[in-house]
Design brief:
CATH class of the largest domain: Alpha Beta
Number of strands: 31
Radius of gyration: 25 Å
Largest sheet: 8 strands, antiparallel
Distance between the termini: 39 Å
Number of helices: 14
Bound molecules: guanosine-5',3'-tetraphosphate
Shape: globular
CATH superfamily of the largest domain: P-loop containing nucleotide triphosphate hydrolases
CATH architecture of the largest domain: 3-Layer(aba) Sandwich
Strand order of the largest sheet: 27-24-26-25-29-30-28-31
Helix content: 25-40%
CATH topology of the largest domain: Rossmann fold
C-alpha cells in the first residue's frame, strides 16, 4: 500500500467520559467489531478499579497493565482505527488531557441517567480548546434516564457543544424499543445482550410509513413522529464540515453493554471522522502527507517495578513514515537517535513495529531521554505546539527531608516533572518549591519514587491555593505594576514562565479587576 493510502486509512481518536458512564464497555464492543479481541472482558484491565482509590501502588500496578491498552488498533471496513486510551481515574486527568493532544477526534460517552458529569465537562473543555471534532454517545438506554430533549439541552449548556442528533430513542428503560437512525433512515429494534438480527434493522425513509406503527406500536410511533418534527425544527441538518471544525457534535443513543447502537456509531464514525490532521509547530504547519517523518511525545509511562525500571515514551506520528532502526533527530537534544524496538501494544500482546504512519502511536523504550512534548524528526528543527500544561488543582510545598541528598532531590523532581507526573513552581520571593497536581495520589507517587529511584527524601506542607494562572500582558508598565503589587503570589513554572497563584476564585477576580490589562490563562499555551 502506498504512503498516501496508508495515511488516508488512519482514524485516531479517544473515548472520554466520567467514570462509570461506559467507556470501557464501549471500547470493548468496538474492538469486538474490529476483531481485535475475541472475548468480552479483554480490556477490562484498562480500568482502575474503584476499590483501589487510596492505594497508589495498587493503582500503579493496574496502570502498568493499562500500558497494554494505551493504543488499541483494529481494522474496520478497510480503515485502521487507533483508539487512544484515556485513564478514567480523575487523579490521572492530566495524562488524559495530554492524550487528547494526540487524537484527531473524540467520542464522549454520557450516562442517560446521570447526564453530563464533572469529568466529562473538563475533558470536553480541553477538546474545545483545539476544536477537536466530538461525537456524543448517550449510553444505558436500557435503563430509565433523563428525557432525551432535556439531555440535549444539558449537553449544549454544560459542554457548550451544538448538537445534531443522528439517532433518536424509541422509549427508554423498560419501554426501550430501539432507535431511529436519522442518518441512515433506519429503525433499529432493541434486542438485549447484542442479539441483533438482520430483520431488526428496517429501512423507514418516511416516518409516516405504517410499518413503523407495526414495529413499535401506535403510541411509540406517534411519539417518534412528534419528536422527529421537533428535531427537524430545532436542530440543523447534519453538516460534516461543521463537525470537522468542531462546531457541531452528532449524537447517538444506545446501550454499550447490550452492544446496541454501537455498530451505527462505528459506521457513522468511519464515514465522518477525520483522517490524521495537520499539526502546528512553532515554526510552521506540518501536513500529514509530507514525505519526511515527524512526531511528538505526548505521554511517558514509568514502570515502578524496581526489577523493570524502564520507561515508555508514546510517540504520535504526525507526518511521513516512521521506520525502525533509522536515525532521527531528537530536536531538544540536537542529536541523532534510532529505535530498535518501537512497540505497539494490543490487549496483552506487544509487537515490534517496523514502520508506522501519521495517526499511529508507537511506544519507545526510554532510559530518560524524553520529556513530554519532545519532537523527533527526519532532520528539521520543529517544535510541536498544543501540548500545554494545565493548572493543577492541588498544591503543596515540598521540603527537603535529607540535606545530604539535595542534588538527588532536585534531579528527581526535575525528571519526574519532565515525565508529567506533576508540575513544579518556584515562588518568586522565597524561592520555595511547590508541587501542583490534579489528584492527591501523585503526591504519594512522587515521594515514593524520589526515595526508591533517586535516594532522596521529601516532606510536604499544606498550601491552600485555588488554581495557577499563566499570565501575559502586552503593556510592560501594567505588567510591572501587577508584579510589584502581587509579588507574594507570583511563581515561575519549570520553563521560567510567570504564574499567578490564586488563593481563591475571589482573589483571581480581584486581580482581574485591579489589573485589567493582564490576562490570566489556565493553560501554559494560550
Ligand atoms: P467506564 O469505563 O466509563 O468507567 O465504565 P464501564 O464501561 O466500566 O461501565 C460501568 C458500568 O456500567 C459497568 O457495570 C457496565 O457493565 C455498565 N454499563 C455499561 N454500558 C451499559 C449499558 O448500556 N446499560 C447498562 N444498564 N449498564 C451499562 P458494573 O456493574 O460497574 O461493572 P461490571 O461488573 O458489569 O463490569
Amino acid at each position: 500500500m502506498s504512503f498516501l493510502e496508508e495515511l488516508s486509512r488512519r482514524r485516531t481518536f479517544g473515548i472520554i467520559s466520567h467514570p462509570d458512564a461506559g467507556k470501557t464497555t464501549l471500547t470493548e464492543k468496538l474492538l469486538l467489531f474490529g476483531g481485535a479481541i475475541q472475548v468480552a472482558g479483554a480490556v477490562k484491565s484498562n480500568k482502575i478499579k474503584r476499590s483501589a482509590t487510596s492505594d497508589f501502588m495498587e493503582i500503579e500496578r493496574q496502570r502498568g497493565i493499562s500500558v497494554a491498552t494505551s493504543v488499541m488498533a483494529f481494522d474496520y471496513r478497510n480503515l485502521k482505527i487507533n483508539i487512544l486510551d484515556t485513564p478514567g481515574h480523575k487523579d490521572f486527568a492530566e495524562d488524559t488531557y495530554r492524550t487528547l493532544t494526540a487524537v484527531d477526534s473524540v467520542i464522549t460517552v454520557i450516562d442517560v441517567a446521570k447526564g453530563v458529569e464533572e469529568q466529562t465537562e473538563k475533558l470536553v473543555e480541553v477538546c474545545r480548546m483545539r476544536n477537536t471534532p466530538i461525537i456524543v454517545f448517550i449510553n444505558k438506554l436500557d435503563r430509565e434516564g433523563k428525557d432525551a430533549f432535556d439531555l440535549l439541552d444539558e449537553i449544549e449548556q454544560k459542554l457548550k457543544l451544538k448538537v445534531c442528533p443522528l439517532s433518536w430513542p424509541v422509549g427508554m428503560g423498560q419501554r426501550f424499543q430501539g432507535v431511529y437512525n436519522r442518518y441512515e433512515k433506519k429503525l433499529v429494534l432493541f434486542r438485549p445482550h447484542g442479539k441483533q438480527e438482520e430483520e431488526d434493522v428496517i429501512e423507514i425513509t418516511d416516518l409516516s410509513d405504517p410499518e413503523l406503527d407495526k414495529r413499535v406500536g401506535e403510541r411509540a410511533a406517534a411519539e417518534l413522529r412528534d419528536d422527529a418534527n421537533v428535531l427537524e425544527e430545532v436542530y440543523p441538518a447534519f453538516d460534516r464540515e461543521d463537525y470537522l471544525e468542531g462546531r457541531v457534535s452528532p449524537v447517538f443513543f444506545g446501550s454499550a453493554v447490550n452492544n446496541f447502537g454501537v455498530r451505527e456509531l462505528l459506521d457513522c464514525f468511519v464515514e465522518i471522522a477525520p483522517q490524521p490532521l495537520p499539526r502546528h509547530t512553532e515554526e510552521r504547519l506540518v501536513l500529514p502527507n509530507e514525505e519526511k517523518f515527524s512526531g511528538f511525545v505526548f505521554k511517558i509511562h514509568a514502570n515502578m517495578d524496581p526489577k523493570h525500571r524502564d520507561r515508555i515514551a508514546f510517540l504520535r506520528i504526525c507526518s511521513g513514515r516512521f521506520q525502525r532502526n533509522v536515525n532521527y533527530l531528537h530536536v531538544r537534544q540536537a542529536r541523532q537517535m534510532k529505535f530498535s524496538n518501537p512497540t505497539s501494544f494490543m490487549a496483552d500482546k506487544k509487537t515490534v513495529v517496523d514502520e508506522a504512519y501519521p495517526g499511529d502511536v508507537v511506544g519507545l523504550y526510554d532510559s530518560g531521554n524524553f520529556k513530554i512534548g519532545d519532537t523527533i524528526t527526519e532532520g528539521e528543527s520543529l517544535h510541536f505546539k498544543g501540548i500545554p500544561s494545565f493548572s493543577p488543582e492541588q498544591f503543596r510545598y515540598v521540603n527537603n527531608a535529607d540535606p545530604l541528598k539535595t542534588k538527588q532531590l532536585n534531579k528527581g523532581l526535575e525528571e519526574l516533572m519532565d515525565e508529567g507526573v506533576a508540575q513544579l513552581f518556584t515562588r518568586e520571593i522565597s524561592g520555595r518549591k511547590i508541587v501542583g497536581t490534579v489528584g492527591a495520589l501523585q503526591f504519594d507517587v512522587i515521594q515514593y519514587r524520589l526515595q526508591h529511584e533517586y535516594g532522596a527524601a521529601c516532606t510536604y506542607e499544606p498550601l491552600n491555593l485555588y488554581k495557577a494562572f499563566w499570565v501575559s500582558c502586552d503593556d510592560d508598565k501594567a505588567l510591572k505594576e501587577f508584579l510589584d503589587r502581587r509579588k507574594r503570589d507570583m511563581a515561575r513554572d519549570k520553563y521560567g514562565n510567570l504564574v499567578f497563584l490564586a488563593e481563591s476564585a475571589w482573589a483571581l477576580q480581584m486581580a482581574k479587576e485591579n489589573h485589567g490589562k493582564v490576562e490570566f490563562h489556565l493553560t501554559s499555551e494560550y
